[in-house]
Fold pyridoxal 5'-phosphate synthase.
Amino acid sequence: MNPGNPADHHANPGDDHGKHPRKLIFAPGDMEVSTPNDQTTPIQKLDLAATLAPANVSRLISEALRSETSTPNSVMEEQILSHPARAHQFVTNPPLTVSQMHPTNPLHQFHTWFRDPRLSASSAPETCTLATASLPLGRVSARVVYLKELDERGWVVYSNWGSRQGKGAQVFGTQTDADSILGAMPEPEDGDLSEGNKWAALTFNWGTTERQVRIEGLIEPLSREESELYWRTRERGSQIGAWASWQSKVLWSAEPASLIERRRKSLAQDVCPQVIPGDVDETDIDDGRALLEKRVREMEERFAGAEQIPLPPFWGGVRLVPESVEFWQGRRSRLHDRFRYVRVNGGGDSYIWRIQRLSP
Ligand SMILES: Cc1cc2nc3c(=O)[nH]c(=O)nc-3n(C[C@H](O)[C@H](O)[C@H](O)COP(=O)(O)O)c2cc1C
């Protein structure tokens, strides 16, 4: 095993799973494969075994604890490989040609696709993935967020940007008061926005219309006034929640050994109640949620008399100002249509959007 190779980090001693990791999901179509009758899950076995002698209890518990390692066996793999519809086909749309694309502005093109009547509100088409990267390592992280606004400059999302543990530090840097846990969001007119990595990407995937939009560009903070406007639309509970949460800070952690021991006791109680006294409730054990609830109570007290809860300094909107925007539409045989707008200098301070067709 090479400790420098991330692929080796999950290898167990004595097996070669580092090189040939066991499959947990084997796409495509493995969900359609029926489970043979004899494949009862370890938990079901445990229920059935509830009346067994205590001598068998520890073996049953070990099986239950191994449940997360259960994998498709070779019989299932054969069934999967013979499955008739192995690859999903994209068939919904007629071909996408450049004449259907907005000639000058990808934001208008995005607006047209976003407003497609086939996208229902219940499918939450505003759901997107925001990717950012740390400096200097270039380590990337991505998370789902909601698009809240599209304006003529770019795509706007709201979050907590003060946390030193989350995307805030990646985007706005870690320079902050050494003692403070949360840094304030910078104002757009702040002279020094150079810290951190402002490059980011936002991706939308709309299954119903078989379309994807990918935006890459630079993040800029909204002004406090702009963020304030959206903040006012949030219900009081969410405002309290924003104040209470040091987003992405670790609230609690444990080593696997102590968790397994805890689970062992809990399972033993089910199978063999006399092992653990009846008044011990495993769900009582604090896993960090209590600290968050305490913070919520503190914030409720702090703002008890306030008619309007103020916008936290670490919370607000950012705008992704695009450098490139790609529109992808699925087609049969993976021969999809892809058009990308790339921002190029148009002379002086102006810019124009060049349109390119990309190979699928
Ligand atoms: C459907 C969905 C919508 C979300 N919307 C937001 C959002 O608008 N803003 C936000 O900060 N986090 C949102 N989250 C939570 C983020 O995915 C993420 O957990 C959080 O922003 C912390 O990310 P970080 O640790 O990278 O800073 C959403 C999660 C889901 C599943």
